[in-house]
Hints:
The chain is α+β, with helices and mostly antiparallel strands.
Amino acid sequence: MEDMAGLDTSAAVRIKKTVERLAQTGAGNIKALRGFHPPEFRLRAGDWRVRFHQDEDTIRILRVCHRRDAYR
């Protein structure tokens, strides 16, 4: 994913671990975003936000942004 390519290693590892934990356990700081169809969610990973769609067994990552840019 091109959003992850420009990150420093520590941020990329943190985001990857957070997404893997979500996929395995469903745990994480998740918030449903309003005004999106199909429903869109954000996952908080420190100062980074992962925006995604979730089906029954699939998590599709849309964007990985710093929190200052995530909601613009």
